[in-house]
Design brief:
Blueprint: H1 12-21, H2 24-27, H3 33-43, E1 48-53, E2 63-66, H4 67-85, E3 90-94, H5 99-111, E4 113-116, H6 123-133, E5 137-141, H7 149-159, E6 164-168, E7 179-181, H8 182-187, E8 205-211, E9 219-224, H9 225-239, E10 246-249, H10 256-269, E11 272-276, H11 284-296, E12 301-303, H12 306-312, E13 327-330, H13 337-347, E14 351-355, E15 365-366, E16 380-381, E17 386-392, E18 398-401, E19 408-413, E20 431-432, E21 435-444, E22 450-455, E23 460-462, E24 465-467, H14 469-476, E25 482-492, E26 496-505, H15 513-523, E27 533-537, H16 550-569, E28 576-581, E29 587-593, H17 601-608, E30 614-619
Parallel strand pairs: 1-11, 3-4, 3-5, 5-6, 6-7, 10-11, 12-13, 13-14, 26-27, 29-30
Antiparallel strand pairs: 1-2, 8-9, 14-15, 15-16, 17-18, 17-19, 19-21, 20-21, 21-22, 23-24, 25-26, 28-29
């Protein structure tokens, strides 16, 4: 079984001693994902691996699966997939968070490879992912009153030739022609051995995760057994997981955060996962009941993306006894300091940041949960891996290593780095000679702690002055009325870009524009970073895992600027403006004029030419 060490990692000295004491091979004898579950079942056969809450109601009797049972189900799933599709089957799944989702994921990796799918995507996008990954099996949630997963699955079977559909439904659900029932097929397989020869392992591909981050088109990232094992081992070590921990598992299992640090890392250490309903913290009832459930199930660790943590912090802990709690962990997006401070005030415990990336098999660095919390830091690299911050040259290439506190591009190397995208054409600029260019801007302090300053593509460049949007967002998030803030660059004819900020308010809050600007100017030290405009919006767009979706906000910022230009400055009130992400300059702007405005086209063309986006004027 993986040797996680006797002492908890708290700081850089502990990490260095940990690495010096044993090699990675000595600490991590597991060769395959299945080995993890074999080892955990041998060590903790009757310990609970997963506690499944369907509703979170106070009187609910949860479903509990121990480590011995989980291992048997994973073997059964692997055998089933092999029987359905032959050697090395590609198994895609569209499932919310269920015991069956874990069984599907780890069973697929044992027999072939998994293709986790975000079921909120449109069928056309999912079909492209299925074809690109060469998936032969699609496991999907059956008919459901709120979710349309099954309807999408039926469409996909028609669009993807040769696709076998496996339905996850309650026992007794009527059969459907041409559809395999997950529960029935699982029980038909042996649970004490695999039937197809050697399980997958080592450098074999274990999964293809789709990623677009906050930037757009999904790409398929390859994970190997080795890369996932190294990432998971690092997560378990830096989080100080033990078999006495109970971790709230609220992240979706189509995302690496939910599958690695809140999945495989936990299973490697014998942790109990508490799945808080299939929808996790997207379920308003779970958010409302969160602290009661933490107290009721004696959770020791709570986790979620910053937006989700912010939501549960709106619910008072009250008289719920959460003394079992030892720490909170968060990642997938930068943590506003105000949320960390609120967590500490509400719970008496620290909230620790994790830096992850699909291309690094889910994990890069962690602020150790046994340490004292480095506010604003994502900690140190995982054991036996390396993170460098490199200078960004004017031509976009990477240069030498930055000095302490000098901002550069974060790069990663180690066995947890993916071998690349399924389509190698996507590798350019991301993977080179085993080094991963994260695209994140960051720096290290004198102790080697890593700090993230934002995405390189998210930089706001005002007349050559680089502005970190996180600086603005963190400042605005400290306003008591502000729930969420997102800063982007708004196109400007003179400066190139000007910083603006969109803010989402807490429920039943109201605030004036003047008050927000005053708060910004009092909270942001750099005058060029003061937002030129602050827009209060009903909701800030988020990705399915809670990251702020910047492309749509950049488009909206450009649309607002061009509307002001054409309708007010150029007095063309009937002009329509459309802005989309993409193109050679990152954004395409189309202005549509009426026939009686045709004579203004040359003047408008001239005005738009001063901006950094693609522009087209048409007459309708």
């Amino acid at each position: 079984m993986a040797n996680l060490g006797d002492a908890s990692i708290q700081n850089r000295d502990d990490l260095e001693r940990f690495e010096a004491a044993l090699t990675l091979e000595q600490r991590l004898p597991e060769r395959s994902i299945l080995d993890v579950f074999v080892s955990s079942a041998a060590q903790h056969p009757k310990s609970t691996a997963v506690t499944m809450l369907m509703t979170g109601a106070a009187d609910e009797t949860p479903r509990r699966v121990d480590y011995g049972q989980l291992l048997g189900m994973i073997r059964q799933a692997a055998n089933m997939f092999s029987a359905l599709a032959g050697p090395v089957p590609g198994v895609a799944y569209m499932l919310p968070s269920l015991v069956e989702t874990h069984v599907t994921l780890w069973g697929a990796e044992t027999a072939g490879y998994a293709v986790p799918i975000n079921f909120l995507l449109q069928p056309e996008s999912i079909a492209e992912l299925l074809k690109a990954s060469d998936a032969k099996i699609l496991v999907a949630l059956g008919p459901h009153p709120q979710l349309d997963i099954w309807q999408k699955a039926l469409q996909l079977r028609d669009q993807v030739p040769g696709l076998t559909l496996v339905r996850v439904s309650p026992p007794g659900t009527p059969d459907e022609d041409g559809v395999v029932d997950f529960g029935v097929a699982l029980k038909a397989q042996p649970d004490d051995h695999v039937t197809f020869g050697e399980p997958r392992g080592g450098d074999d591909v274990a999964a293809y995760f789709h990623t677009g981050g906050t930037t757009g088109v999904p790409k398929l990232v390859a994970h190997t057994h080795r890369s996932q094992l190294v990432a998971a081992f690092g997560g378990a070590s830096m989080c100080g997981y033990t078999s006495t921990d109970i971790l709230t598992a609220t992240l979706p299992l189509f995302h690496v955060a939910g599958t690695i640090v809140a999945g495989l890392s936990a299973f490697m250490a014998g942790v109990e996962l508490l799945i808080m309903s299939p929808a996790g913290l997207r379920n308003p009832e779970i958010v409302e009941s969160f602290w009661r459930l933490v107290a009721q199930h004696k959770a020791t660790l709570v986790g979620g993306v910053p937006t989700a943590i912010g939501a549960v912090l709106q619910v008072p802990v009250g008289d719920n006894d959460i003394s079992s709690l030892r720490a909170g962990l968060t990642g997938a997006a930068l943590l506003p300091p105000a949320v960390g401070e609120s967590f500490k005030k509400a719970t008496g415990r620290n909230l620790y940041e994790i830096l992850g990336m699909t291309e690094a098999s889910g994990l890069i660095s962690i602020d150790p949960l046994c340490g004292h919390s480095g506010v604003g830091s994502v900690g140190w690299p995982l054991p036996y891996t390396k993170v460098d911050v490199l200078r960004l040259n004017e031509d976009g290439s990477l240069g030498g290593v930055c000095a302490a506190r000098e901002i550069g591009v974060v790069t990663i190397s180690g066995d947890h780095v993916s071998p690349g995208y399924r389509d190698p054409d996507h590798n350019d600029g991301v993977f080179q000679d085993g080094v991963l260019n994260s695209g994140d801007l960051g720096y290290k302090d004198e102790e080697g702690r890593i700090y993230i300053a934002g995405r390189s593509k998210d930089l706001i460049i005002r007349s050559g002055h680089n502005i970190d949007p996180a600086m603005i967002e963190n400042a605005m998030s400290t306003h008591p009325a502000v729930a969420l803030a997102a800063a982007v660059g708004q196109p400007d004819a003179y400066a190139g870009e000007l910083p603006i900020c969109f803010v989402e308010l807490h429920p039943n809050q109201d605030v004036s524009s003047e008050d927000l600007h005053r708060h910004a100017q009092n909270s942001i030290d750099e005058r060029p970073a003061w937002p030129k405009q602050i827009y209060v919006v009903n909701s800030i767009p988020l990705t399915t895992v809670g990251k702020i979706y910047k492309p749509s906000l950049r488009c909206e910022a450009a649309r607002l600027r061009v509307i002001d230009l054409v309708q007010n400055e150029l007095a063309l009130p009937d002009a329509e403006v459309d802005v989309v992400d993409g193109g050679s300059r990152g954004m395409r702007v189309t202005v549509t004029l009426t026939e009686d405005q045709r004579s203004t086209v040359p003047a408008l063309d001239k005005e738009l030419a001063a901006y950094l986006f693609e522009a087209r004027v048409q007459v309708q």
